[in-house]
Structures are given as structure tokens and as C-alpha cells.
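Ligand-bound model needed. 3UK.
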Amino acid sequence: MHRATSPASAHRDTFARDHLPPRAQWPEFCFDLPELQYPERMNCATVLLDDMVHAGHGERIAIHAPEGKYSYVQLLALANQIAHVLVSDMGLQAGNRVLLRGANNPMMAACWLAVFKAGGICVGSMPLLRAKELTEIINKAQITHALCDQRLAVELKLCLPNCPTLQTIRYWNDDSSESLDFLAQGKESQFKNVDTLAEDVALIAFTSGTTGKPKGTVHFHRDVIAMCDCFPRSCLKPTPDDIFIGTPPLAFTFGLGGLLCFPLRFGASSVLIEKLTPETLLAAIQKFQASILFTAPTMYRALAGLWQTDDLTSLKKCVSAGEALPDATRQLFKQASGIEIIDGIGATEMMHIFISHEPEHVKRGATGHAIPGYSAAVLDENGERCAPGQIGRLAVKGPTGCRYLADERQKDYVISEGKMRGWNVTGDAYVMDMDGYFIYQARTDDMIISSGYNIAGPEVEGALLGHPAVAECAVIGAPDAERGMIVKAMVVLRAGFEGNDALRKTMQEHVKSSIAPYKYPRDIEFVAALPRTETGKLQRFKLRRPS
Ligand code: 3UK
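Prediction:
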């Protein structure tokens, strides 16, 4: 039936909707599967939390943490109290953007759910981000409110003079009478969730692109539920008895899915721990009897070396994403644990994993096949499908897809014309074999992926250039057995400086104090000059070639 007017958004602040790409540039969305038939109005927190309590999961554990555990009813009550603080004390209006700043812990999880409930838009921030990067995010998303762990307040406070839209902040883990914890305690534990459209914006997830300027990927309430109904349903197959654990921050959609949304969607539970090393992760798996692990390839490699078979029998399934899983790591981990890792490629733009496999259908060296709900293809330079065995650019489509917030680069990610119009191009070079398995080759752009983190070379260059000894520099990814890649800088020194280890160290410290420390160059090579084109452009591909 023809509808004269579009259904009413619950958002009073329409900034996010107004800055979506034009419709013609949106990807095509596919909802063919029966499990992807969603109603017109849907609040993802209602589905993930309220509905689960009504379905009888109330007394079951939702979150385990070193500081205590929360049943579904308790998590619901806390999220509701925080939602009241957002609305009554902080004046949140539906559609406002809320910065969420904290490590993985129960309070952080409750804050995510509370913002969804109150109709706000979540903008997660990696705990390690520094003021420079936070400022860009806050201004790009015109963030109005923030919920921040007191322990991460310093960098946020540094941003404030340059962030005029951000007016209302509450801190937690703070004893003051204005703290989020204190205010929340005084609120009632019932809250009427804002009746959002399935297509109202629920979150903006930032990713750093090749230029280093962060891109905000916009996702709807429907997308949050769709990510739960694809990869977990088809490849992971969790049960309510599963206990999830892992390392990715909730601010990374890999972590948001794997450590919060997936467990809740299936009535299972999640272990949230702030900082995990291979040793403490193993201890936590044992202590909490975790059964499903989400982490990156480097961690699996480290875990394999530490594994003691007798005490880790609870662990059943392991998911690897963020960067390519080397087959050597898969084999090492399998020898140590007996577990076949589930590899999956996901992207912030796509929300979560779209190519993966069930553990029993692994193919060595391959990421897997397009999971039910998604289609994938490898394209040649003319945008035609490659024959099996031919390398090309990976393109995908499914129930989720890329919509950048006010960003020209939308046209680089979503094909806007021709036969493949509406497909998302991830920036990865892939090969499809005769059986429809997709085999990862490399990033097609300059992005450096180190230990599962995406690092943009030019941003590191920008930081290095702030050091007095640096005349010119180029940052590339250098292959590394353990981290996949490491950040390597080629530096041309200013006259009067001598390239030695002491200088390397001060340059590394300099980078760590200006941008997120994990982006620092682990290798610095001093060179006499950098290869450039006639027009002055750096030729990175020449630097990547081993000399
Ligand atoms: C690379 C992989 C080979 C690939 C992510 C799972 O990584 C995630 O999102 P990002 O936006 O990066 C996306 C890019 O990372 N990549 C990710 N996984 C794999 N390459 N094999 C893999 N298994 O270049 C991709 O385009 O940071 C992963 C779920 C949610 C995510 N956001």
C-alpha cells in the first residue's frame, strides 16, 4: 500500500539523520532471511534487555565482572536508572549524540543500553584515544552529552575548550554528589524506552581512514539487531548457557557485538574485564568458565604459547577478526587447545562479520564464505566479477551497510553506478576459489593493521613531524610475524641531529604522547631522502618493497 508520509522518527534532534548520505549513495540492503523481518518501530535495547527479562531470563546472569555480577533484571534496572539521569538530570533529547568513554565493565555496558533506551545516539570512544582524536570525533558528530569513567577524564577535559557542542558530562567511579553512579542510585528502576523507528540512528561508530581523518559510520536500531541475527546465528550458534569473554573494546563494533549484544540477544552472559593480557585472559577464562572467546589473531598466538590443557575445558568456541588470521596461528592454537578458530572478516562500516565459517567447515588460508544474509563478490578494475582464482576488490551487501556521517568518502565505499550499484567495497583485496571460499590477500589502500588495530600512516607522520629532529617522514606497515604488521617510520633528520637509539626512543615517546600510544612506530629507520613523484607525492609502495 502506498504511504503518503514516512513514519515518524522518535528523534527531536535530527542532526544524524540530516547528515546521512543522500539516498542514492546508500548501499542496497537485503532482508531475505525470515529472521531478518523486523517491525517498523524497534528500540534495540528493548529487544536486547527488556524483552529478554519478559521472556523469563530475568534471574539469569547477564554480565560477570571482577567487581561483581549482574542478572538481566539488575542490568535492566541499572540501565533504566542511567536513562533517567540522561533525561532528567542531563536534559537528553532523543537524537542527541552521547560520547561513551570507559573500559569494558558493567557500568559501561549499562550506559550503552541506557542511551539506546533514552533514544540517544551512542558514540563509543576507545579508552586510549587522546584529546586530539577525541576532539575530532566530538566535533564531527556534534556530540552534546558524555558519560565518562572518572579515570579517563583527563583527555576528555582537555578537549572541552575546542568542543562547543559538548555541554553536559557526568562521570562515574566518582564520589561526588553529581556523579553518574550517585545520581543513578536515586532513580527508579523502571523506564519507558523511547519508541524509536527501526531506522532511527542508534550509534555512530568511528573508524580511521587512510587519511587519518576519522569517519563516522551510522547504524540504526535495526542494524544492532541484524548483526546479532547474522554471524552468531549462522556460524557461532550460541546457547543461553554460553559465557562470552574477550578483548575488543565495546567502542569497536567487534566488541560491541561479541561482548554485549550477542550474549544478550541469545540470553547468554558476558564477562567484562577492563584490561587483559594473555596471562590474565587465560586466568579469567578459567575463573569465569567462559565458553566463547572474541579476540584478534595476535592474542591467539600468544595464548597458544601459554596454554595448559587441563584447566581450560570450559572454552568451546573462538572467534578471530580485525585482521587476517595467519594459518600458522590457527594451527598453533589448535595444537594447544584443540579448538578450530572461527575466522571472520567484519568492518565498522558493515557493523560486524559478513564472511566467516562454521568451525567444522574451515578451509586453511581462507576467511570463509559469505554468511547467510550477505552476498560477497570479488571485482576487477572494471567493476566486473572476477573469475574464481583471480585477485580483485572485495564487495559485499546484506542487511547492514555503509552510511558515513557527512563524508565525501561514501562514494569510495559504496558503488554508485553500474551492475554492482549498492555493493559495499571494503578496501580489501580478495580471491574467491571454486568452492566460494574467500581468501584474503591484503588491504588495497595504505592502512596499517597492527595487532587488530587500524592505524593510518599519515596520522603517525603528523605526530612525528611535531618532533624537532624530524625533517620529513613516511610511515608504512612492515610485515611482522606476531602482530601481522608493525608501524614503521622512515625518517629524514634535520641537520645537526644524529640518528641513534636514544633519538629513536624520544621520537617514539613523542608519538605516544600526541596520539593513541598503540599507533607509535615500533621501527624507525633513518634515511637520507624519501622517494617522491614529480608533483611531490610520497611513493609509499616504493618504501614497502624490501631493498
Ligand atoms: C580487516 C580482516 C582479514 C579488513 C571488525 C569484525 O575489523 C573490523 O573493523 P574495522 O573497521 O576494519 C575493517 C578491516 O579490517 N579485517 C577485519 N577482519 C579481518 N582482514 N581477515 C579478517 N578476519 O581489512 C577490513 O576491511 O576496524 C571486525 C567485526 C567488526 C569489526 N568492526
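The longest helix spans residues 72-89.
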